[in-house]
Amino acid sequence: MNKQIQAAFQGRLLDEEMLLDRRELMQLCGISEALLVDLVQEGLVRPLGEEPREWRFTGLEFRRLQRALRIHRDLEIDWPSTALALELLDELEALRLRVRCLEQQLGRGCT
């Protein structure tokens, strides 16, 4: 898939309600079905649906998978370590959001 089509498609994925089937996700991310199954089993992405043929992925899961692939590649770590890194990043983002909310409640505003 060329870069222009991929960029246009990614722009549309900001809508959380948009769903991709597994083949679309694999094509966009450049991964095999076997790897996708492994990543789902590892907990890196969470599809909707029970069986692989039923799997659908939200735009948020697409972005999460892209992030996981980048972490795996850039840090040269295994998939369980990638899952841990993602979990820690998710927790960090949640804590930052909580701090912003608490600052707003205290009247300090966001920085």
The major sheet is characterized as: 2 strands, antiparallel
Can you give the helix content as a percent range?
55-70%
Please provide the ordered H/E string of secondary-structure elements: HEHHEHH
Whole-number mean pLDDT:
87
**Span of the ends, CA to CA:** 40 Å
Per DSSP E runs of 2 or more residues, the count of β-strands stands at: 2
Q: Order the strands across the largest sheet as they lie in space.
A: 1-2
Radius of gyration: 16 Å
Could you describe the 3D structure shown?
- This protein is mainly alpha-helical and 111 residues long.
- The chain has one domain: Multidrug-efflux Transporter Regulator, Chain: A, Domain 2 (Orthogonal Bundle), CATH 1.10.1660.10.
- The chain is built from five helices and two strands.
- The chain has a two-stranded antiparallel sheet.
- Helix 4 packs across helix 5.
- The radius of gyration is 16 Å and the shape is globular.
- The protein starts with a helix and ends in a 6-residue tail after the last helix.
Give the helices and strands, then pairings.
Blueprint: H1 3-12, E1 19-21, H2 22-29, H3 33-42, E2 56-58, H4 59-75, H5 79-105
Antiparallel strand pairs: 1-2
Helix pairs in contact: 4-5
